Amino acid sequence: MRCVMSLLTITLISSILLSLFPQTPAAYGPLNYACCVKYTRNPLPFGVIKGFIEQSSREVCRIDAIIFFTKNKKKVCASVEDQWVRAALAHLRSKITKLTEKRAPRLTTAAGLKRMIHTTTKTP
């Protein structure tokens, strides 16, 4: 009987001590993730926008938002419903398309590479 009481006492004390420690942050995602909780009312000039990500209300955060990254290393939350946001996204997407079109001729398929090797190794 005394052994059972000792075991219960140890279990109780262990439970109390473990509950005092904070829970691990890994269970709640990265600590540096911050959600947008409201939108900016001021449009950003396109020249200061460096990039963007989309925030979904179906994941961790409560609202859908576009998070713009500025050249000053700031994050600006905006609504997709705003006209200036849609215009900025369209402009960014067109820049990405132009960049990928410029790089496309440099890409080589395996067959093209084989042909290139074959034509450069022929002896006259």
UniProtKB/TrEMBL annotation:
Tagged with keyword Membrane: no
GO cellular component, one term: extracellular space
Keywords: Chemotaxis, Cytokine, Disulfide bond, Inflammatory response, Secreted, Signal
Signal peptide span: 1-26
Chemokine interleukin-8-like domain: residues covered: 32-92
GO molecular function: chemokine activity
Compartment annotation: Secreted
This protein's record includes keyword Disulfide bond: yes
GO biological process, one term: immune response
Protein name: C-C motif chemokine 20-like
Source organism (scientific name): Cyprinus carpio (Common carp)
Gene name in the database record: LOC109074000
